[in-house]
Amino acid sequence: MQRHTEIWSLEDSAKGAAVAMGNFDGVHLGHQSVLALARAAAADLEAPLGVVTFEPHPRSFFQPDGPAFRLMSAEARAHRFDKLEVAQLYEIPFDEELASMSDINFVRNVLRNALGVRHVVVGADFRFGNGRTGDVELLQKLGQTHGFGVTIAPQINDAQGDYSSTAIRTALREGRPEDAARVLGHWHRIEAKVIHGEKRGRDLGFPTVNLPLTGLHLPKFGVYAVMVDVLTGPHQGIYQGAASIGERPTFGVNAPNLEVYLLDFEGDLYEAEVSVALFHYLRPEEKFDTLEALVEQMHEDCAQCRKILDNLL
To answer: CATH fold of 2-155, please?
Structure first.
């Protein structure tokens, strides 16, 4: 997959795709249905399959001091699109210039001139242009003017409701990763580079990998059964794990992070890129009166995680 973060000077070989367009936070089943229509259009036109998205997320641009809401980082989103065999990923910088661009100029300057799209697929609620003045009906009209087709993807759902990023956030906030996975079509993952922590886990006999949660929607604090994909470094592979998300109250007041103990693993993962999939919520975060009580609970948590993961896989 070719990933483009600067779209204004693309070579001709990177243009001319049939694209799915949107924010795609989570790349859930609704997003995948939009991508499927773009894939069909690409096949009909014998064009590359592309995705047009925005970075940062427009909500972050307009509400920079708002609460963290993203389900995945730009890197994690790119990894997901790579797995879905997208050929061209266009991450359009969402800045003051783009935010102030009219709907007509967005279509003419970005979609036609910069990207040379041949077909565009969007969800029925897609809006574009300064003040969100452009809707899907206008996009279809402008597409005819500028020589590309437009398909409007319908909202899809199941018996439990619409497939949406909001539904996923709610499920994660309530400690229901299985329900989040039902909407996503895959397990919710947190991807990042391993950072140095306080190394308390090593002292307790449970060395952990530490991942930052900056900018991400926080799942319910507590302990989870997880699967860990080590993406880079000498220990690449898939491992079972027990994870804690939260503020580590036994050790005072701390910024929220993700700590993962990999079962049956020995090695150094500092600086490695890892992807942690949340499978099952075990229990809430707890403050322990003694380190002995904490260690005893950690042994129990690991045994439970092993049993859960063995049964699921």
So the answer is: Rossmann fold (3.40.50)
